[in-house]
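Dig into this one:

. . .
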Amino acid sequence: MMSSLFDDTPPSRATESRAHPGRPLAGTPLAERVRPRTLDEVAGQDHILAPGTPLREAIERDLLQSVIFWGPPGTGKTTLARIIADMTRARFVQFSAVLSGIKEIREVMAAAELERRSTGRRTILFVDEIHRFNKAQQDAFLPRVEAGDIVLIGATTENPSFEVNAALLSRSKVFVLQPLAAEEIALILRRALADRERGLGAENVDASEAAVTAMARFANGDARAALNLLEFSAAAAPVDAATGARRLDVPQLEQAIQRRALLYDKAGEEHYNLISALHKSMRNSDPDAAVYWLARMLEAGEDPLYIARRLVRFASEDVGNADPQALTVAVAATDAVHFVGMPEGNTALAQAAIYLATAPKSNAVYVAYEAAAAAAHTQAADPVPLHLRNAPTGLMKELGYGKAYRYAHEEPDAIADMSCLPESLAGQRYYQPTDRGFEKEITRRLDGWTRIKEERKTR
């Protein structure tokens, strides 16, 4: 009989599993003990696991096809595979890409083919860290996947577009698992604290809500990291002489992790206070304050892409054309965070914040848009002047579309004495550039073009 998926047998060979064991063995880590056993126990990933979603329906009806679970550590990839192991009627085999090679793959493939021919039962093969297999190893799965002998479940922290063979990828559906929200991790921690059978409920651990929140933020979307921190912190917490409980609060947590636990509610006042401080520090050209408030937010667990979006907005609203490169820098920082993730993306955000803080400032673009938007809402929607309209048909030409349009490139200085606003708004100025940064050059150009137009009128 093959060993259980959940025992301590070294995974140098594929192991077959049918169900979860009963009470966890002594010394089993908390993260393993409280691993969800049903889909309803899974916290997060509602976008793929909510009732009625295709993946959940396929799991519950035991009609799963080959899939790749792609996501950061601690988001539930292995948990999902183990739940499937419990729910499926198929033979379920776990395979470790770290400790297995081509010989073991061929053995499992041969067994899967034999199982289907002799019993009609398919094999679900879970390959953890599938990105660690080379091309030849991945190719070995293809014949049995194509024949229907195995249903492949691959788990990877790497982009499968780059790490999984195209042939194998084309035969699999990729499901992206997102980092867990702090609220979802806090729920997992509370369950672990309350669970008397598998968690810490029988160990009289009194954790403050602030400490739970801090651990959830510190974990940065990784449930396993949060549970490991809880287990370590609870073991190190002092016993209250009066109650006999091990008291776990923020100061105790800070000692356990050897750094200050930065607490703030991403949906509450402190969230808005900090982003306001960052925005106003950059507006006031204070790079030191800007990078400080940026670090406060990132170290507290703020979504880096939220900050990146605010930097992009600032680049247009408060720098604008005083330094057109500012928007490029802000967008590049956003791309960098997408590309390298966190924490490596923190320096890209810091570079952008410092650049924006030290750039010349102008809100002329913002003011121009607000004025134009107000006019669009409050004034009559005048038709587009005929000379600005295209005339792709003969009828439209007969109606005057495009008549009197002057092609700027054929005009001296590439500027035509032609109004491009509706007649009722002729001469209206929405954009008023400042004399700071590149807008000083824009002002010079606009003034020069105005003089050219005036001189033409007097000729």
